[in-house]
Design a protein that fits this description.
Blueprint lengths: L1 H12 L10 H28 L7 H12 L6 H13 L14 H10 L8 H12 L2 H7 L3 H23 L5 H32 L19 H6 L6 H6 L15 H11 L33 H8 L1
The structure holds zinc ion (2 copies).
């Protein structure tokens, strides 16, 4: 199913090549959407808040940010957190769900297509993300694929708002409504989803292959100038592996971290607090409610990973 969804959204996003579906509003929505849904939903919430508890905020605000993350079609908060914590526990070793040492394509997006039943089960999710699954809100997102319906709902809303504006506008018509609605859908939802996917996946792939290292971590994590910039901070991945709970991923002055700047702005508004400073964690998993018990082989077969890593 994953391969059908990922392929379908990529194909749908190709419609941006159509002149008929072009609108500057769509372009702006795609760019702003990468920040709103990707930076706030994935970086700030799924990654730094839910996976690493790098700061605190009111529960209603956490849930609001999580809904933005769900609109990025990167599975549920619980499944994202479990996968990500397994990645940190076994980075570039057997058990890492998406090491690019198997192959660059596998680390980038191949792993999304292959269901690993030894990982995708209630017991493993409970081991890695018990704190998330204990929250009834996140549990509800799992049931009846509600998370997928949330994604579909926001896509329909983008279309309907565009359709309404195009239809009821000064020179409105039914055709103008359909055209503008589809424009917002294709640019503001499908293209934005594809962009955020590849930004997140690039942190996993490029972030473990190309770039420089500030810290001698036991994995192959790298700081990538390109990914650091386009991901709004999550591409300073070697820094993050070295100090996983720190709210800031950019540790040097030349490593801009828009996600962290956003968190500092939210702190000024009183919406977030207790940002974990760099260099203060006792251990990477300190205070994380994660109880991994056994190493689960990567897919494809772990021998491949061992050979390439060696
Ligand atoms: Zn992380
Ligand atoms: Zn990593």
């Amino acid at each position: 199913m994953a391969i059908a969804v990922v392929t379908g959204v990529h194909v749908a996003a190709l419609a941006v090549l159509s002149q008929w579906l072009f609108s500057w509003t769509g372009v702006v929505l795609a760019a702003v959407g990468v920040y709103v849904f990707g930076t706030l939903g994935i970086n700030a919430c799924f990654h730094r808040l839910l996976s690493h508890r790098s700061y605190k905020c009111p529960l209603w605000f956490e849930h609001l940010l999580a809904v933005l993350g769900v609109c990025c079609l990167q599975k549920t908060p619980g499944q994202f957190v479990a996968t990500h914590r397994a990645h940190h526990q076994y980075s570039d070793e057997d058990g890492d769900p998406h090491s690019p040492l198997i192959s660059f394509f596998w680390g980038h997006m191949g792993w999304v297509f292959v269901e690993n039943p030894q990982f995708s089960n209630a017991a493993t999710y409970d081991n890695y993300a018990r704190d998330i699954f204990r929250d009834p809100f996140y549990l509800r997102l799992e049931r009846n694929v509600l998370w997928l319906w949330l994604y579909v709902t926001q896509a329909v809303l983008f279309y309907l708002v565009g359709f309404g504006i195009g239809w009821l506008g000064p020179e409105g018509s039914l055709t103008a409504g359909v055209q503008f609605g589809l424009s917002l859908l294709v640019w503001g939802v499908f293209l934005r989803t594809v962009l955020v996917w590849h930004i997140t996946w690039s942190v996993n792939s490029i972030g473990h292959v190309w770039g420089y290292r500030n810290y001698e971590t036991r994995d192959q994590s790298r700081n990538s100038l390109l990914i650091g910039l386009i991901s709004n901070g999550d591409g300073w991945h070697n820094n993050h592996h070295a100090d996983q709970r720190a709210a800031a991923h950019g540790h040097k002055w030349w490593e801009p971290d828009v996600t962290y700047l956003t968190l500092m702005g939210l702190q000024l508004c009183g919406l977030v607090w207790d940002l974990v400073p760099v260099g203060t964690s006792q251990s990477p998993h300190e205070n994380l409610p994660m109880k991994p018990t056994k190493q689960i082989p990567s897919r494809p077969p772990s021998e491949t990973l061992r050979k390439k890593a060696g």
